[in-house]
Amino acid sequence: MRTLLNKIQNIFHYLLYKKSEFKEMKYKDILLIKLVLQIYREKTSSKQIWIPLYNLKSIHKIDRDNAIKLNKKRVSILNSNKPPLLDSHRISKESIHKYMPSITNIKVIQESEHTYVVFEGNSRIEALQQVFSRNEPILIEVECYSFHNPKLIQQQINSIRKLNGLR
Question: How far apart are CA 126 and CA 124, in angstroms?
Fold first, then answer.
C-alpha cells in the first residue's frame, strides 16, 4: 500500500512541477508526460549511481522559453562554481540541488552498457554539458530506474527522442 501511495505522490508532484509548462505543450510533450508516468508506475527498483557526464543523453531538447532562461541561469551559476566542482571530479545529488535546485533528482534509464537516457533533469544535464567539456572527467550522481521489461520502455524513449530530433 505504501508503494502505491509513493507512486501516486510522485505522479502528483511531477504534474505540479510541470504545471507552468502546460500552455506551451505540444503532442510530443504529452507523449513524454505519458511515458514518465508509465516509468513511475512500472519501475521495479531504483538506485543511486555515478555516470560520466557525457554518457548521459537527453530525452528532449531544451527549447521552451522558460527552460532556456532557467538553463542560462544554471550555466552562469555552474561557471561561477566550476573550479571546486572540477577539482572533485564528482558532482553529487546534493551539489546538483545546491547549484541547480529542483524537486527531483536526475533520473535515468540505462540504454546500453555505457549510455543512459535522462527522463528527469534534462535542463540540468544540458547546463552541466555546456560548462564542462568532454575532456574534463566529471561523474554525475543520478538515480537509475530498473524494470521487468526494459526493452518496451527503451523503445518508447527512442520514439520520444526521435520526435524531439535527437535520434
Answer: 5
